[in-house]
Design goal:
The chain has 9 helices and 8 strands. It has helices spanning about 15-25, 40-50, 80-95, 115-135, 155-165, 175-185, 185-195, 220-230, 250-255, and strands at about 1-5, 30-35, 55-60, 100-105, 135-140, 170-175, 200-205, 235-240. Strand 3, helix 3 (about 80-95) and strand 4 form a beta-alpha-beta unit. InterPro entries: HyI-like, Sugar_Epim/Isomerase, Xyl_isomerase-like_sf, Xyl_isomerase-like_TIM-brl.
Length: about 260
């Protein structure tokens, strides 16, 4: 198992995402993933990542003002140009830090119509073509309605159907076990069923999104074994909120028989 720190959730003891690169390295991580680094230039982010000496696995699509709940316009008719501009900016950042994966966030909508689904799929088709040219992977992630009410994509079946129709090696599924448990549970069966479409995995305990060994619904020692059994060998993002100090909370990795 290869674990990467999610700097949007971990090491928040530091005020900026730039400082968290170094903290992740100090904690023993070889790799990280991040949300889009709002407020920081491409050069600043590249320097922070390179100074820390870590690999960057994934970056989230530029989405707008996250503090206002703006999580993308991928499913909004009339905002196709904004989506394309955000995609290009994110590609530039991804290339600068060497990230090979971009999480294409769908956005939040209070009322969903068929035109939203058409726009979403059309934008993903466009993204697949652009990402193919630069050899990057786009991943889409169903997000549960408890954590993010009105998030557009919260259905694994629909996500897989779209991935099948687009039929591109550059659009795959981001399988966050935290969201999978919230949305449909039945983890062993669904991991096996979804694995052919998976491009990235993330983990956190349910319901409080803390360390995998914290009290909750998921037996992560078993689930990590299931991911291996079903052929997943890529990076696993630790997208959880540490109960206390991020570094101290990493004891579960050794306790589960793994290492950084």
């Amino acid at each position: 198992m290869k674990f990467c720190a999610n700097l949007s959730f971990m090491f928040t003891e530091c005020a900026t995402i730039l400082e968290r690169y170094a903290l992740a390295k100090e904690a023993g991580f070889k790799a990280v993933e991040t949300g889009f680094p709002f407020g920081h230039t491409l050069e600043q982010v590249k320097m922070a990542k390179e100074s820390a000496g870590v690999e960057q696995i994934l970056i989230n699509l530029k989405t707008g003002d996250v503090s206002k709940g703006e999580l993308g316009v991928t499913a909004q008719p009339g905002k196709e140009n904004e989506f394309r501009e955000n995609l290009q900016v994110t590609i530039d950042y991804a290339k600068a830090v060497g990230a090979k994966k971009i999480h294409i966030m769908a956005g939040k909508l209070e009322k969903v119509t068929s035109s939203n689904w058409e726009t979403y799929e059309d934008n993903l088709k466009f993204a697949a073509d652009v990402l193919k040219q630069v050899n990057l992977l786009g991943v889409i992630e169903p997000i549960n309605q408890h954590s993010v009410p009105n998030y557009f994509l919260s259905d694994y079946e629909r996500a897989v159907d779209i991935i099948k129709r687009i039929d591109s090696a550059h659009i795959k599924l981001q399988l966050d076990i935290f969201h999978l448990q919230h949305i449909c549970g039945d983890l062993s069966y669904n991991i096996k069923k979804l694995m052919p479409y998976v491009g990235h995995v993330q983990i956190a305990q349910v319901p409080n999104r803390n360390e995998p060994d914290s009290p909750g619904e998921i037996n992560y020692k078993y689930i990590l074994e299931q991911l291996e059994i079903n052929g997943y060998t890529d990076w696993i993002g630790l997208e959880y909120k540490p109960v206390g100090n991020s570094k101290d909370g990493l004891k579960w990795i050794n306790n589960f028989g793994y290492s950084l």
